[in-house]
Amino acid sequence: MSHDFPIEVNHLAMAYGSRVIMDDLCFQVEKGAVFLVIGPSGCGKSTLLRHLIGLQQPASGTIRLLGENYWELDEQARNRLMQRVGILYQRCGLWSSMTLAENIALPLQLYTKLSPTEIRDICHCKLELVGLAGFDDFYPSEISGGMQKRAGLARALALDPEILFFDEPSAGLDPISAMNLDQLIRELRDSLGTTLVIVTHDLDSIFAIGTDAIYLDPKTRSILGRGTPKELLEAPPAPEIREFLTRGGGR
Questions:
Q1: Quick one: 249 exposed, middle or buried, by C-beta within 10 A (0-12, 13-18, 19+)?
Q2: Phi, psi for residue 5 in degrees, rounded to 5
Q3: CA-to-CA distance for 171 and 190, rounded, in angstroms?
Q4: 179 C-beta neighbours (distance < 10 Å), count
Q5: For every residue of 40-80, which 3-state class applies, written as one string?
Q6: Could you give the angle at the alpha carbon of 150 between the alpha carbons of 189 and 67, nearest 5°?
Q7: Strand stretches in the chain, DSSP E
Q8: H/E segment holding residue 140
Q9: Half-sphere exposure of 177 (CA within 13 A, CB side)
Q10: pLDDT one-digit tens code per residue, 183-231
Q11: Nearest-CA neighbor of 7 among 147, 214, 238?
């Protein structure tokens, strides 16, 4: 695999039993891209994300992350591979009984041999990186939804991943918090060079942060369009894409 493509998907079929969700998906994600998976509700965006992070096995075809096929690895190798990947879940996935620093420390305690002092310093740095300096000892219930998203992102960054996956990062946020999160995502991509894969239906985010995108079509069960959000809007390969990107406005 080329080092320019940390993600390669070849002839992927996704199914629940006999019900095929998507078939023959083929795409590559360039290193450092903000790659968006877009499409209408029920098209299979979240299912694709589950396949990409190893939570669901393909019906057929292959997915290679950082040169490795997750399903061809033994358990130890799978764990090593997933330590190179970070995930921000839609509901953040923070442990409510742990402080923000303790949430971020958990993967460091599980997968590194760092001392408690080193882990504490890293947790502080990650919180500072996402704009939450000084909130180390706060619990998730004590901060806003936007701050919880940032804390979840800090934990996803704990092991300095090469790929970051986001599941609807702006879901549940007010417009200002969503805009601030978009800005943070752009800054992290620029400063860290991390490859970002984002499942989203938020049009503001799509045009604000996306450098590449695929549109999943539930009718054909395939990728109906590929390109930057601007390209897909100005020269859509199918009318469904323009309708999606204009919220039915058609222009």
A1: exposed
A2: -125, 90
A3: 23
A4: 16
A5: CCCCCHHHHHHHHCCCCCCCEEEEEECCEEHHHCCHHHHHH
A6: 45
A7: 7-16, 19-29, 34-38, 60-65, 68-69, 85-88, 163-167, 195-199, 212-217, 222-227
A8: none
A9: 14
A10: 988 888 888 889 999 999 889 999 999 999 999 999 999 999 999 999 9
A11: 214
pLDDT in tens, 90-107: 777 899 999 999 999 999
Quick check: helix, strand or coil at residue 180?
A: helix
Q: What pTM did the predictor assign?
A: 0.91
* Count of CB atoms situated within 10 Å of the CB of 139: 16
Q: Are strands 60-65 and 68-69 parallel, antiparallel or unpaired?
A: antiparallel
What distance in Å separates the CA atoms of residue 125 and residue 55, rounded to the nearest whole number? 30
**Token couple for 156:** 């996803």
Tokens of 95: 């442990």
Strand partners, 63: 9
Distance, CA of 143 to CA of 208 (rounded, Å): 26
Residue 4, token pair as written in the block:
């320019």
Strand locations in 106-251, DSSP E?
163-167, 195-199, 212-217, 222-227
